[in-house]
Amino acid sequence: MYNPYQLTNKTILVTGASSGIGRTTAIECSKLGAKMVVTARNEVRLKETLDALEGCGHQMVTADLTNPSDMEKLVATIPELDGLVNDAGIAVMKPVPYIRQKDLEKVVNINTFAPVLLTGSILKRKKLKRNASVVMVSSVASMGSFELGNSIYGLSKSAIKTFAEYCAMEVKNREIRVNSIHPGMVATSMTQNTSLSDTEEMDFSKYIMNRCGKPEEIAWAIAYLLSDATLWMTGSQLIIDGGAHLA
Ligand SMILES: NC(=O)c1ccc[n+]([C@@H]2O[C@H](COP(=O)([O-])OP(=O)(O)OC[C@H]3O[C@@H](n4cnc5c(N)ncnc54)[C@H](OP(=O)(O)O)[C@@H]3O)[C@@H](O)[C@H]2O)c1
Questions:
Q1: CB of 117 closer than 6 A to ligand 1?
Q2: 96, 109, 206, 230: which has the fewest Cβ within 10 Å?
Q3: How far is the CA of 52 from the centre of ligand 1 (A)?
Q4: What residue owns the CA closest to ligand 1's atom 42?
Q5: The predicted structure's pLDDT at residue 192
Q6: pLDDT of res. 205
Q7: Can you tell me the distance from the alpha carbon of 73 to that of 28, in angstroms, rounded to the nearest whole number?
Q8: If 0-12 CB within 10 Å is exposed, 13-18 middle and 19+ buried, where does residue 158 land?
Q9: Interval 120-177: pLDDT, tens
Q10: For the chain, first and last CA: distance in Å?
């Protein structure tokens, strides 16, 4: 059946796959036919993701992406890829006068350094095939949604948005494309475990759709960017925020 959105015969690595958007992306991509390589630190939760994938031939690799030897092991282990989703990330809220170097390092190490270094290392080892797609999971925090106390997170996500554009220019000759995705508030453990917001009690009036997003609604957009339906799309930023940027 004709379907330009299918992921059959594609091998895709998703970081941050032990929960939330990363886990859901891995599951949805497997339903679209992809072979998945999933990675995160927590072995138990990562195995739950692996067990939830549709089809066979999937692989899991536990790794702390802020640890250079773990990243090295991951890159050495993976097969050649048609897709890379840089999803792993954390949120830390800190008003500007209270920001310390360790707060910056904690957030930037995983949100910025890890996706930049992982993408570079995979490219260096020539493990991204021609026509491969790289997706950076950024945030509306890099696109004008300025929550008080969210500056470290915002700068970490702005950096990968800009990196995606530079990287897109560098890999164009191999027909690899690099895009970023910018979700608004999505109900995951990140939004439940931080003071970023209580998704149950939050006022969603600035969201035109009047609710927060579901992980599937981000996963489907990531799957679109990984599919051949976006072969001519690179250096783009896809905002998915229930219309909040219009408010
Ligand atoms: N939820 C939202 O509202 C929202 C909005 C915009 C953008 N985002 C972005 O979407 C991405 C996923 O967020 P989420 O909401 O799905 O959060 P989540 O459920 O907390 O998932 C975060 C993932 O990152 C992994 N991770 C964290 N530190 C890591 C490290 N040092 N090494 C390897 N993996 C690590 C975690 O796995 P382990 O703990 O097992 O390592 C987990 O799988 C993040 O980049 C986030 O910034 C989220």
A1: no
A2: 96
A3: 18
A4: 16
A5: 79
A6: 79
A7: 26
A8: middle
A9: 999 999 999 999 999 999 999 999 889 999 999 999 999 999 999 999 999 999 999 9
A10: 40
Q: How far apart are the CA of 173 and the centre of ligand 1, in A?
A: 31
| Mean pLDDT estimate for the chain | 95
pLDDT band with cut points at 50, 70 and 90 for residue 206: confident
65 lines ligand 1 (CB under 6 A): yes
The string of DSSP codes covering 83-143 is EEEE---------GGG--HHHHHHHHIIIIIHHHHHHHHHHHTT-EEEEEEEEEE--GGGT
pLDDT at 201: 61
Q: Which of 142, 148, 145, 138 has its CA nearest to residue 98? A: 148
From 3.40.50.720, 3.40.1190.10, 1.20.1250.10, 3.40.1620.10, which CATH number describes the 11-246 domain?
A: 3.40.50.720
User: Residues 74, 63: contact at Cβ < 8 Å?
Assistant: yes
3-state SS class at 10: coil
In the prediction, which pLDDT does 200 show? Answer: 54
Is the pTM higher than 0.85? yes
Q: How remote is the CA of residue 165 from the centroid of ligand 1, in Å? A: 22
- Residue 88 near ligand 1, beta carbon < 6 Å: yes
Q: Whose Cα sits closest to atom 41 in ligand 1? A: 41
